Amino acid sequence: MKRRKQNIRITADGSITGEDGKFLFFSLKRFRRDIVEGNCCFLCGISPTKSQFNDEHVIPDWILKEFNLHNKRVTVPNSSGFLYSKYKVPCCTSCNSLLGRAFEEPISRLLKGGYQDVLDCVMRDGPWLFYVWLALIFFKTHLKDRSLRFNLDKRKGSENIAELYDWNTMHHIHCLVRAAYTKAALNRKVMGSFFMLNAKTAKHLEPFDYGDLFFTKTIFLRFNEIVFFCVLDDACATYTLMKDGPISKIAGPLSPVQIREVMARISYATSIVATRPKFFTTIKNGYLKISAKIPKFVKTLEGDQNRYGAIMHRACGEWLSKSEFDNKEFILENVKLGKWTFLFDEKGRFLTDSMDAI
Q1: Is the whole model's pTM more than 0.85, yes or no?
Q2: pLDDT block averages, 10 residues each, the chain of length 358
Q3: Cα–Cα distance for residue pair 316/271, rounded to 1 Å
Q4: How many alpha carbons fall within 13 Å on the CB side of residue 53?
């Protein structure tokens, strides 16, 4: 991303503004007040009383058009459905257009071109474009949770889903997704763990799918035969742990439940990483830069099958509960215990037909 040199000013709360008065960096206090608790544009921070808003689709509008999703419903964390067409977050018209130019236009061309076009781009330029795009979708998804009740039954409480989150852990991701606006340079150490695999395609399988786990900042997004997995805040520690492990043994396209198991395995791996990176934003000669300080060695916590089972059930349980198959209760119970895999047989060989008929 092209950087711009400019005079800057540090505000009383620690935010940084440029010479035009636009915020290049939100302090944690301003981030919580204006973005998390307010209704300002999530990218530039302007109030809807000072600029025209047309809001931003959480799932990009071009994807909704591609797969005719506008009148379909996305399942949100309280297990209710929400129309994709209304699944939006506050965004001003200018920033909405900026996101289209920076992400949606180039990414739509690449994804519609197919797996090889995306792979060629990643091999040539690295996964930066897709990594920041996934971070953007992750951030919008959970910002939207501010308006969704945790309990559908008001008698059980009126808090919204986002009140359960630790928003301090989202501050770095907010800085990351704003790089298209701030023109901040991204140090290579900022990159999170990124995996790209094949997804199984068939008439009975949905061509688009998305899922994430907030507490480990793990995400997957499936577009036709392409599926991305990413950990957004680990500085590639999870990739280091997993690159020669089970993921390397995947020998074919993934079924929907296998995609969720891969996300669960990645989420579990990052959950036991004890040495976490520290992210920071610096200004030098008027240039903004987002960097990371990472440990020399990846230290891990002791393995915990109960933790893995809980993550597997969180990732796969709802999908399995809505599907029909033999031994359903037995499989669900073993998923909870961390004793079931949809990826490999008893000899560790990849399963090419794991629930792909569902």
Answers
A1: yes
A2: 65 90 94 96 96 95 96 78 90 97 97 96 96 98 86 69 90 96 95 97 94 97 98 96 92 96 97 94 86 91 94 94 91 96 95 83
A3: 17
A4: 19
